[in-house]
Amino acid sequence: METKNQRTFQITCLQKNLSAIRKIAGWTAEQLGEKIGVTKQTISNLENGKTPMTLTQYIAIRAVIDYEIQTNKENTVLPQVVEVLLNRDEEYSDEEREQISENVKTIAATAAGGITGASLAAVSAGLLGGVLGLPIAALGGIAASTVWLSKVIKEKKNGKDE
Questions:
Q1: CA-to-CA separations, 28 to 33, 63, 153, 156, in angstroms, rounded
Q2: CA angle, 114 then 119 then 120, to 5°
Q3: Are the C-beta atoms of 145 and 70 separated by less than 8 Å?
Q4: Rounded CA gap, 111 and 114, in Å?
Q5: In a 3-state reduction of DSSP, which class is residue 154?
Q6: How far is Cα 4 from Cα 54, in angstroms, rounded to an integer?
Q7: Higher-confidence residue: 47 or 9?
Q8: pLDDT at 31
Q9: How much of the chain exceeds pLDDT 90, in percent?
Q10: CA-CA-CA-CA dihedral for 137, 21, 55, 5, to nearest 10
Q11: What is the pTM of this model?
Q12: Which whole-number Å values give the CA distances from 78 to 21, 27, 66, in the listed order?
């Protein structure tokens, strides 16, 4: 059963990596804000850590990320990054987590520079595969795409908020 601390950890992880994930998705802060019904300043404040991400914002952002993954099959890097950063984050040591986060920032900078498709996938495979010690294809696609949501809903449904 997911505890409040685990949920807080997931929210913090998304907030810490939001800028990189947004860039890999190909969105500006304004575009992401429009997708979840907030201003670009709110997105900026979240990305810069000026305001803490709420559970509602977390759910909204994860939902638009999942929708992007399901509908934009050309962006093969986004599902891999989400899988590593958000769905499997608890599997890594703090040192591995920090290295992954830094490598994802490099991937995001590459994406923001206009590199997409196979070239971006190659950069991602080199950076993430090297840290994880496995081929990036082993991460799969979107197998766990809605597992995060079912955990949050189940937690609230059972009335448990440990």
A1: 9, 17, 29, 32
A2: 65
A3: yes
A4: 5
A5: helix
A6: 13
A7: 47
A8: 97
A9: 49
A10: 60
A11: 0.80
A12: 7, 12, 10
